[in-house]
């Protein structure tokens, strides 16, 4: 089971209070990336992004329109079904490698810096952050990572080195989350992009997302993330 870290000393803003005429996804700047702070943020509906330059304070976001993948809404094309049969999906066997691949500075719009890698590595060591990996012929060819708290899986980033490898990891994650509590689980992907929309990701207003989040936090972790 995940280990609860010391509580954060920071008072984090309530993103629900930003709904009154505030159309900005950014709701706070500062604090730290300690495990207790990160968990408090996710439980509140926030997630961090680093500043533009090293040494900048951390930015905390709660999008006005949140990207969410309904577990019954994943779109699996015929070609993706074929790809699913070509790869092996594993969980938490190469977390650091997945994060490193997602943080590759050669990727366009890369945002994962050394501090983020270290922070999520600590969350992984405590049992809160997880990777879903795609393997082919013994090689890591794709995957994603994120944070699991109760019925919330907050996806952070994904990568691929072979056709459809990241999509297969997403298919694998959805299958892991489809259990007797699936109707209250939330698969959060932060923002909808055209690519994610093609897979079934929808936009949820901030207030609605926070309601979904509160319900999801009462749900037990999926067995694979709970250590059994």
TrEMBL record:
| Root EC class | transferase
Claim: Magnesium is one of the keywords in the record: no
- What is the protein's major site of localization? cytoplasm
Listed SUPFAM superfamilies: Acyl-CoA N-acyltransferases (Nat) (SSF55729)
**Keyword annotations for this protein?**
Acyltransferase, Cytoplasm, Transferase
According to its UniProt entry, the protein's GO biological process terms are:
protein catabolic process
Give the record's GO CC terms: cytoplasm
Where does the UniProt annotation locate this protein?
Cytoplasm
Give the matching InterPro entries.
Acyl_CoA_acyltransferase (IPR016181), Leu/Phe-tRNA_Trfase (IPR004616), Leu/Phe-tRNA_Trfase_C (IPR042203), Leu/Phe-tRNA_Trfase_N (IPR042221)
EC number(s) given by UniProt: 2.3.2.6
Q: From the UniProt record, list the reaction(s) this protein catalyses.
A: N-terminal L-arginyl-[protein] + L-leucyl-tRNA(Leu) = N-terminal L-leucyl-L-arginyl-[protein] + tRNA(Leu) + H(+); N-terminal L-lysyl-[protein] + L-leucyl-tRNA(Leu) = N-terminal L-leucyl-L-lysyl-[protein] + tRNA(Leu) + H(+); L-phenylalanyl-tRNA(Phe) + an N-terminal L-alpha-aminoacyl-[protein] = an N-terminal L-phenylalanyl-L-alpha-aminoacyl-[protein] + tRNA(Phe)
Top-level taxon of the source organism: Bacteria
Q: Which Pfam families does the UniProt entry name for this protein?
A: Leu_Phe_trans (PF03588)
Recorded GO molecular functions are: leucyl-tRNA--protein transferase activity
Please give the function described in this protein's UniProt entry: Functions in the N-end rule pathway of protein degradation where it conjugates Leu, Phe and, less efficiently, Met from aminoacyl-tRNAs to the N-termini of proteins containing an N-terminal arginine or lysine.
Family label? Belongs to the L/F-transferase family.
Q: HAMAP family per the record?
A: Leu_Phe_trans
Specify the protein name: Leucyl/phenylalanyl-tRNA--protein transferase
The record lists the organism as Nocardioides lianchengensis
């Amino acid at each position: 089971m995940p280990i609860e870290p010391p509580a954060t000393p920071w008072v984090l803003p309530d993103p629900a209070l930003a709904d009154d005429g505030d159309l900005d996804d950014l709701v706070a700047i500062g604090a730290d990336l300690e495990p207790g702070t990160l968990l408090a943020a996710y439980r509140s509906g926030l997630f961090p992004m680093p500043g533009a330059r090293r040494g900048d304070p951390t930015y905390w976001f709660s999008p006005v329109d949140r990207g969410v993948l309904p577990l019954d809404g994943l779109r699996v094309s015929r070609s993706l079904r074929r790809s699913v049969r070509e790869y092996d999906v594993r969980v938490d066997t190469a977390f650091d490698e997945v994060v490193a691949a997602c943080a590759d500075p050669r990727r366009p719009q890369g945002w994962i810096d050394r501090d983020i890698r270290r922070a999520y590595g600590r969350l992984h060591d405590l049992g809160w952050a997880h990777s879903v990996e795609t393997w082919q012929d013994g090689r890591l060819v794709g995957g994603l990572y994120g944070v699991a708290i109760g019925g919330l899986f907050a996806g952070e980033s994904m990568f691929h080195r072979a056709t459809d490898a990241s999509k297969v990891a997403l298919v694998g994650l959805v299958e892991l989350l489809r259990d007797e509590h699936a109707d209250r689980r939330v698969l959060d992907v932060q923002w909808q992009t055209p690519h994610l929309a093609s897979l079934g990701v929808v936009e949820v207003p901030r207030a609605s997302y926070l309601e979904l989040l509160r319900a999801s936090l009462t749900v037990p972790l999926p067995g694979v993330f709970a250590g059994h």
